[in-house]
Amino acid sequence: MAPSSPRKMPNPVFHEPIFNESNVLPDPTGFAVPHKSDSKTYDAVEKLLKTQVVGFPASRLDPDGLYPLAEAYGERGADVEEEIRKAGRIVFHVIGDSGAVSGGKVYEHEVAVADQLTADCRGNDAANRPSFLYHLGDVVYNFGEAKYYYDQFYEPFRNYPAPIIAIPGNHDSFVIPGTPEQERPLDVFMRNFCVETPEVSVDAGSLHRTATTAPGVYFALDMPFARVIGLFSNALEDPGVISSEGGRWEAVPDLQLAFLEAQLTKVRDEKYNGAVLLAVHHPPFSYSQLGEAPATHGSSIAMLAQIDEICARVGLYPHAVLSGHAHNYQRYTRVIDMGEGEHQVPFIVCGDGGHHVNQLVWSHKGSRDEPGFGTDVSYLDADPKVNAKGLRLEKYNDRDYGYLRVDVTPDHLAIGYHTVGALGLAQSRTDKVTISLSTRRIIGNG
């Protein structure tokens, strides 16, 4: 139930992280802070949405440093990681684009996603319970305002019993002209997801979840059997931007290029044998028909070219790439040759975490029929900087809200897509891809 005015709670004893409330709270029935229409604001900043990028501070860690999952758990972290190792697998959730901006059915969709994620954490099989939630960005709409964090993040996830770790999206970072410096969206995001010591954020209101201790807006999350390299793709509607691109985006530092190269070099030199995933809010690939504008957000080709160049230089590509931003589910297979035979790399878009669901093709815009599963879309891979051999759109869902469930063992990486609402939890998975960690080829599809 939404309180009339969220109040600030005291910080936790001994600075240990807190995730969920001690008692299961019922679903909220509405917003504590009404969200007025932003249509006039969008009209005023339309040009800026295509041109205004933001700077950001360096991570607290060195470029090759790792943020261990154990740290997100605090004092219990070592025990949590030991349980994962004994189980021989790690499971975690991934969502993107979760914040709802209006009440009624729209808010109910976000709450339903959060509730299903929470229910999945309470299964009887301890080894099959997700250990955390990784958010691909766009936590709070439309412009990352602090006053909406309670309604759009803290209350929907009030019962989620594990860490929520996030990279920012464009809606978590775009600055409306006139915003006070201390309330700039990226600063607000960082005080909720990038603090040095777990504490209850002023934005959490009357709830007890503490802010997450990630070292910055880009970081490598390390855990048993897997590593997730997270990048911040900045504040534009499109495309994603991870560097200055040689001076085109002067406000953006080149920190992430050195970071990504250092992380991949570390994987190579240490002969790391776990799963390596790359997470970035803007998708490298998002569907559009040949020669036509996308119905939803498009691909970020220049960003992908920079990622490719670093991977080619190091001689190693991640096992999978995860993104949000486009408000639907899309799964691609990109075939690349890194000099040791062909690798099959899933590129997955999962941006239907509660904010909205957009169709892949809008017929009123004159587009043709929706593509079939398995359609060759190699034309989207317009400027590859690796030896790319083809790109297929394997599956998509542009009707339902959903999330990813990632399952990693010493041998394989499995990524399942689960829908929310239409089916029960046990029947919710509608797609899955499984990759061999050693051969980097898909061993299970669909």
What keywords describe this structure?
single chain; alpha/beta; Purple Acid Phosphatase, chain A, domain 2; 9-stranded mixed beta sheet; globular
Describe the SSE topology.
Elements: H1 39-45, E1 67-68, H2 69-73, H3 77-87, E2 90-95, H4 105-120, E3 133-135, H5 149-154, E4 164-166, H6 185-193, E5 219-223, E6 226-231, H7 255-269, E7 275-280, H8 301-314, E8 320-323, E9 329-337, E10 342-350, E11 375-376, E12 387-397, E13 402-408, E14 412-419, E15 429-436, E16 442-445
Parallel strand pairs: 1-5, 2-3, 3-4, 6-7, 7-8, 8-10
Antiparallel strand pairs: 2-13, 5-6, 9-10, 9-12, 11-12, 13-14, 14-15, 15-16
Helix pairs in contact: 7-8
| Overall shape | globular
User: Uncertain regions: pLDDT < 50 for 5+ in a row?
Assistant: 1-10
Lateral arrangement of strands in the main beta sheet = 1-5-6-7-8-10-9-12-11
Q: Total strand count, please?
A: 16
Broad CATH class: Alpha Beta
Sheet/helix structural class: alpha/beta
Annotated CATH topology: Purple Acid Phosphatase, chain A, domain 2
Per DSSP, the total helix count is 8
CATH evolutionary superfamily: Metallo-dependent phosphatases
- Sheet with the most strands, sense and barrel status: 9 strands, mixed
Please give a structural write-up.
By secondary structure, the chain is of the alpha/beta class. The chain has one domain (36-445): Metallo-dependent phosphatases (Purple Acid Phosphatase, chain A, domain 2). It contains eight helices and 16 strands. The protein has helices at residues 39-45, 69-73, 77-87, 105-120, 149-154, 185-193, 255-269, 301-314; strands spanning 67-68, 90-95, 133-135, 164-166, 219-223, 226-231, 275-280, 320-323, 329-337, 342-350, 375-376, 387-397, 402-408, 412-419, 429-436, 442-445. The protein has a nine-stranded mixed beta sheet. It has a seven-stranded mixed beta sheet with strand order 4-3-2-13-14-15-16.
